[in-house]
Amino acid sequence: MYPPIEPYETGRLDVRASPTLIHSLYYEVSGNSSGVPVVFLHGGPGGGVDPKDRQFFNPNKYKIVLFDQRGAGKSTPSACLDHNTTWDLVADIERLREKLSIEKWHVFGGSWGSTLALAYAQTHPNRARSLVLRGIFTLRRSELRFFYQDGASHLFPEEWNHYLRPVEPGKRDDMIRAYHDLLNDPDEKTRLGAAKAWSRWEMATSRLFVSQESLERAEEDRFALAFASIENHYFVNDGFMRDGQLLEEQSIAKIRHIPIIVVQGRYDVVCPPTTAWALKTVWEAKESASFTFYLVPDAGHSSREPGIERKLVEAADEVVEKY
């Protein structure tokens, strides 16, 4: 990772979503003002950006753009679900590109950030210089079921038990739907308790070795409410897309000309390697630009896993020189 840096520009992208609602999106720019642009797409949805996210990029070569998606991080209104869909966020990325007078940029994202990167590139295929993606997630029902219903639960039974607690036994056959009810309960205490339990499940399963810092973050009221509410909102609505849409041939055909590097943790239980492999398989089914796939043998899901961090930095260094 590169040394910590501070942004030289911060601002707000205000988007009037309705006559009574303005989504005000926090953004920042760091690195070299004359450098090659890159946009960092955070995870979740609802996770927000972190100052450490700037450090994946060489600050002498990159113009580094970070922003908090609708309802996340420093964007307001916090945890707002109104006019908050995949396609709203895709449009926001374009608005930000235009606001910053950027012609094309590298697109860098992990987990939900990889979902959004694919959706953005497929919608605006001539705006991405390259894709650097980590922990591929395409929001198929099979992926959601593995993590939130029957799959990761077999590997983290003690944390699964914690995740089950807020849900009545009779409602556990559909945990995403059950949590949707809890996160929209009129009682504030019920909503907050559910948000913290939902957030803890992901924080506890994202690394080979559980991070106490991540568990503590799941206990922060503002973060937990935004993270859980927005994630669940997207998942209960199937990401506002067809099941498997991002992997359909008609979708991949739009972006095969874009060089892509995928970094995937072997022991990622949040976004298991099968999805990254599915992307590789459909991508390479026809003649395409470069597809580079790194399966990190000693890593889980988090971008903070040492092996994943290292490969992401190498990937960012590579694309800024080549593309």
Secondary-structure blueprint of this entry?
Elements: E1 9-18, E2 21-31, E3 36-41, E4 62-67, H1 86-99, E5 105-110, H2 112-123, E6 128-134, H3 141-148, H4 157-164, H5 175-183, H6 188-205, H7 212-217, H8 221-236, H9 249-252, E7 260-265, H10 273-283, E8 291-296, H11 306-322
Parallel strand pairs: 3-4, 3-5, 5-6, 6-7, 7-8
Antiparallel strand pairs: 1-2, 2-4
Helix pairs in contact: 1-2, 4-6, 5-8, 6-8
- Class from secondary-structure proportions: alpha/beta
Instruction: Count every beta strand, where a strand is a DSSP E run of 2 or more residues.
Output: 8
Q: Helix proportion of residues, in percent?
A: 25-40%
Strands of the biggest beta sheet: in what spatial order?
1-2-4-3-5-6-7-8
Quaternary state of the chains: single chain
Largest sheet: 8 strands, mixed
Amino-to-carboxy terminus distance = 21 Å
The radius of gyration is 19 Å
User: In terms of per-residue confidence, which ranges show pLDDT below 50 for 5 or more consecutive residues?
Assistant: none
The geometry reads as globular
Q: Mean pLDDT, as a whole number?
A: 97
Number of helices: 11
Instruction: Give the ordered list of helices and strands.
Output: EEEEHEHEHHHHHHHEHEH
Share of residues in strands: 15-25%
